[in-house]
Amino acid sequence: MSRDSADAVVVGGGVVGCSIAYHLARRGATVVLVERDTLGSQSTGRCAGGVRRQFSSSANVVMQQLSVELLAGLEAETGVDPEFRHIGYLFVLTSDKQVEDFRRFLLMWHETGVTDARWLEPREVRELAPLIQGDDILGGTFCPSDGIASPHAVTLAYSGAARRLGVKLIEGVEVDGIVQQAGRVQSVRTTAGEISTSAVFNCAGAWARKVGALAGVDIPIEPYPRNIFVTNPMPDVSRRHPMTIDFATSFYFHPEGDGLLFGMGMADEQPSFDTAVDWEVLDAMADVIDRRAPRLGTAGIQTAWAGLYEMTPDHQPILGPVDSVEGFWCACGFSGHGFQQAPAVGYLLAQWFSGEPPQVPLDVFAHRRFATGTVEPENNVV
Is the overall model pTM greater than 0.90, yes or no? Predict the structure, then answer.
């Protein structure tokens, strides 16, 4: 690579980086995206594909409203169908505290425009999700317009549209330096040469802390491996079965191909970049499956994989420019919600970069919150 120059360099070619590159280019910026592997090959290609608005933080709900809107128009805009299936999201609640919290969230969801989210009594939970069992179920919330989309298709949509707008997408190349002068970004060094630029977008996901360190910025993100399993065919389970989450344990499942995809967070998780499938997780989940969805436990496993969650201390993303280095922007730390937030994040950060105030205020996601202590944690993390 000869010495390139660009208005912005995007580091990381997952769905978030591709969305940002596309939206920046759409507003006239010259953009180079650098991905050390292949586009969408890391966390994006290994996620469960969920899209929901049932969050505890109103800022996330509002942002997701925009993402859902953008996904609805994605095929018309890019020619690629995001395969967004509105099977709905169902949260299964089993404690008085959860019931109290989710009844309160429901009011907030309605106020923020998620008008089809509704409360379910225990009988309705079982009717809607016939695989679910348990005498301890106290109720649930359900939003029928939530659902699942294809991470591969959405990444392809944004990367293809970005390329048509002149974005240079470079794969198999690593960023190994961010050059500054007087506290301002001057260029990005890569294993294939240097790119002059005054703006860098850190979209490196679980590796975002390493990219931050190149600019002398501490990005409080830790990688946590999450395992996903897909059962053998379960032809008697409807393909419209909602994405179902047992909130107390974070055990979740949804139809995938002719089987069911499922996973669960572990209480004793440790940070690691290891993405080998941990089959012991399956043993640890056995009790929960047996209690909550016993038929799933008899189906057998067709395939499994692991990806990395990029966790921040408050389970919220870090979005926007950082105070200490002019021209260093973050779009990372999504804590399991990056795929679904990517459409809105690309749109809003491109708006901000081009000098407009973002249509959804992003102050709650600013990097400085870790220094000022003004945090609004996201509690509905799956």
Answer: yes
